[in-house]
Amino acid sequence: MANVTVIGAQWGDEGKGKLVDWLSNRADVVVRFQGGHNAGHTLVVGNEVYKLSLLPSGVVQGKLSVIGNGVVVDPWHLLEEIAKIGAQGVQVTPDLLILADNACLILPLHKDLDQAREATAVKKIGTTGRGIGPAYEDKVGRRAIRVADLADREALEAKIDRLLAHHTPLRRGLGLPEIDAAAMLAELEAVAPQILAFAKPAWLHLNEVVRAGRRVLFEGAQGALLDVDHGTYPYVTSSNTVAGQAAAGSGLGAKATGYVLGIVKAYTTRVGEGPFPTELDDAVGQHLGTVGKEFGTVTGRARRCGWFDAALVRQSVALNGIAGIALTKLDVLDGLETLKICTGYRLDGQDYAYLPAGLKAQSQLEPVYEEMDGWRESTQGARSWRELPASAVKYVRRIEELIGAPVALLSTSPQRDDTIMMRDPFAD
Ligand code: IMP
Predict the structure, then answer these.
(1) pTM here?
(2) What are the chain's domains?
(3) What is the crossing angle of helices 132-140 and 108-120, to 10°?
(4) Distance of CA 384 from the midpoint of ligand 1 (Å)
(5) What is the pLDDT of residue 47?
(6) Which of 111, 221, 253, 287 has minimal Cβ neighbours within 10 Å of its Cβ?
(7) What is the 379 CA–ligand 1 centroid distance (Å)?
(8) Ligand 1 environment, Cβ below 6 A
């Protein structure tokens, strides 16, 4: 199997950036297939820290990188991110980056709408405020501006009129200033040449790559429980984040996903609002947040923290077809005397082995825990299984049993090389 799809198996922030960076060494092409610059991928290479939100992590390794049609693209942000990592010594040229010409754009009006809604909502979603949801709404509403439209002034003018016919009354209702069509056209035309330099039929290039037997690494953003269908709706993002989207969001056939690697944190975190059965509001929760440096890459918000939820990850294994997991941040648990793992839930006297779909049910679930001994030794930076304390090995083995998937990789620090490989996803 030549391809690997990396997805977050919880609520995002599982440490995908590091693993994708590590795996991209073995890949020929790295592809983003959903989401936008709401993602935050941190890559630590030696003394250099790269923070990417939209660019595929492969750019840092100089691998051909593709932003697929399933991604929503803020053109100004894209150019800023390219300039930022350019200043760190990574030059992103059209030879290195392909932007799908059929990807939809995020415009300033999407960001306005996202932020105005969050500011006025009685029940906030806790979005990143970057316009992701409104951009996807316009995509399915068939009024979005796509990358290719930037090359066609006439089409662009007509599309702007159509878009504003929808947004003007919305903006009026929210007390936002009206948008001038000519000004919007001028702004888009100003950015068009730089963006179009990267624009190509990404699906065509990717199909050629696959036919040539080269290895594709799909880089998911967010996490399976933030999936618009399968997540804790409506407290989700606006795209499908599950592995199956890798094919549709890049223009390849369904079999393209290959080995699905779920990235799983050794405990659970979540940013934004929504149900979180194993959330801890105590000293252990604070330990996880502080030791794990649980602050959002994109918004800087403190993440909510809790025990490992095996029921949730078991569900993720099923939804994504996860073949193996990469377990991250085990070292954050170092020094905790006792650890708890959630094995299922109880609600109104009934047991659940999965997260029921109803929002009320999800927020009232009582987690069922089993306890395990912790370990005093440091696991940070361990480079082999033998360096781990016996209780840590037991914890990892129990996780494997409960979620029904093996640990393929164990990440023991943010550094690229602190990774223990049990099996090579590209070889499986
Ligand atoms: P949006 O994607 O900005 O619309 O935000 C919707 C929800 O997804 C919020 O709860 C965000 O905190 C969450 N979210 C979006 N992107 C990420 C991410 O990369 N990591 C973790 N949570 C995210």
Answers:
(1) 0.96
(2) 4-100+199-257 (3.40.440.10), 104-195 (1.10.300.10), 264-427 (3.90.170.10)
(3) 110
(4) 34
(5) 87
(6) 253
(7) 30
(8) 12-13, 38-40, 125-128, 130, 132-133, 221-222, 226, 235, 237-238, 271-272
